[in-house]
Structures are given as structure tokens and as C-alpha cells.
Design goal:
homodimer, mainly alpha, DNA-binding
Chain lengths: 129, 129
DNA sequence: CCTTGACTTAGAGTCTACTCCATGGTGTAA
DNA sequence: TTACACCATGGAGTAGACTCTAAGTCAAGG
């Protein structure tokens, strides 16, 4: 699979894909004789995971640490789990904060609706009289 | 209320408070004869709102636009509401994405628990034999 | 009076995560 | 075979949101 195809499939720019590879988040990706990347199934799975974790706002350096632990094999299971648990907590907290913000937004929007209603009523009055 | 007290109350650094004022997100804050800021009740309410919107990941420039509309008064009600509605949609989408990430994290953590269990069992076997 | 600690300013610096650029090679359809 | 879109590299540049620094002012306590 070419970098363009991967880019389209996962909605990550080709620049981003190369950047992720450079910093060690994915790959190294195998290349054909003329140096062009050929993404394999396992690469795609890594990319999907990375994308998901990035959407969970996991910072790049933490993700890199996770990937490095992964490469070290079985003895790092506990550490890797720990990283994910930490991230889970962060995600839960963020969801809570967003929910709070959401409520406030809804409340304010309601207020605006009310104010707009009043404004329109008074304009109508003006027009009628 | 001094900048330090506000900083403690809202968990925003004094630098950040001054920065918000500089870019026009809050204030201008009134100052005493020797030039020291004195935050009033209305400032605190603005700060609380700004903090909430920032936690909702509303970009600074959008917030500034909102604040400017607010200062223009009644005729901008519709526009302001529009900004908030947009932001609400963004927040809802982000919550969804975080929920997705959360599920994936939970799933992976479960897998790790299982793998760790297996590992410990086999270690126990080794010890016993 | 002097020190200490909190306050002020303007402006430079930092961090994260990309994103863009210049330059040059590749592959395939007409 | 030439045009075209795509690929590569290293390194510079950007956006957003702070964060820090230097240099100075001010009020209170010892």
C-alpha cells in the first residue's frame, strides 16, 4: 500500500505519516528497490492505534515510549498497561470537562434563544404600531 | 482581588491572566493608582466563562471574536449564538471521539490483564516445579 | 533605611505537532 | 518520450497558547 493510499484511508497527511515514522511512532516501513514505501497490514494496524491514541490526546512522546516498550517484548507488559491506564484516566477526566462545557453551552444557547425571542417580539410590536 | 488570588481561584497562571488581557479576551482590568490590577466580580465571571470555553477547546481567536461581538451589544445576539452553537457541535464530536478512544483503551487494558494473568500463572508453575 | 516579595511592562523564547519547501527520482498512460 | 502525478529526503517554518526574562515600581515588616 502506498503512502497516498494510507493517507486517504486514515485521513492523515503524507507528511504526518513520514513524520510519525521519523520520530519512531510507526515503522520502519519497508521500501521497494527504488526507495518507495510499501505499507503492510501490520503497519496499518499500528497506524490505526496511533491515530486513535492521538485522538485521545495522548502526547507523541508518551506514545513513542509505549511503542518502544512494545518492541522490548513481554517483560514490559506491566509498564505498557500502566501507560494505558494513565491515559484512560486522562480521557475520562477530559470527557467530564467537555460534558461540563457542553452543559454550559446549552444553557447559554437557551438564554440566547430567549433573548432573541424577546427581541423579535418587540420588533414585531414596533412594526405593527 | 489581586492577580494572585484570581490565579489561585481559577488555576490560571498570572502570566496567562495577563496574556488573556493583552489579547483582549478579558478586561481591561481596572488598576489602582500604582498600576496594580484589581479584578472585579464581573471580571471573575468573564474569566470563569473563558476558562470553561478553553476547556471546551474553543480556540483563542474565536473566543476573542465572541467577546468583541459581546461588546458590540444587542445587535450581535444572533452571531454570538451562532458561535456557541458551532462550538457545541465541536464539543459533541470531540466527546464522541474520546468515548471511542476510551472504549479502545478499556479493551486493550483488558487484554493486558489477561496476558499478565497468563504470565503470572506460568511463572507460578515454574516456581512450583 | 533596607530587604523582601508581589506587582508592572515589553518583548523574547518555548513547546507540541505538525506542515511546507527545494530538489530530485519514479512510474505509467498517451 | 514526454507529461504528469506521485514518491523521496533533509531541514526550515508555522500556529497556537502560553511561559519566561529583564528591568523596574511599590508597600509592609524588621
Amino acid at each position: 500500500m502506498t503512502i497516498k493510499e494510507v493517507s486517504d484511508k486514515y485521513q492523515l497527511s503524507t507528511d504526518t505519516l513520514r513524520y510519525y515514522e521519523k520520530v519512531g511512532l510507526i515503522g520502519p516501513i519497508s521500501k521497494n528497490k527504488s526507495g518507495i514505501r510499501d505499507y503492510k497490514e501490520v503497519d496499518l494496524r499500528t497506524i490505526a492505534f496511533v491515530k486513535c491514541m492521538r485522538q485521545a490526546n495522548m502526547p507523541i512522546d508518551k506514545l513513542i515510549r509505549y511503542m518502544n516498550l512494545y518492541k522490548e517484548g513481554n517483560k514490559t507488559l506491566e509498564d505498557r498497561k500502566q501507560l494505558l491506564v494513565e491515559q484512560l484516566h486522562k480521557v475520562e477526566k477530559e470527557i467530564q470537562e467537555l460534558e461540563k462545557a457542553k452543559e454550559r453551552l446549552c444553557y447559554k444557547i437557551d438564554l440566547y434563544d430567549y433573548q432573541l425571542l424577546e427581541k423579535n417580539l418587540s420588533m414585531e410590536k414596533e412594526t405593527v404600531l
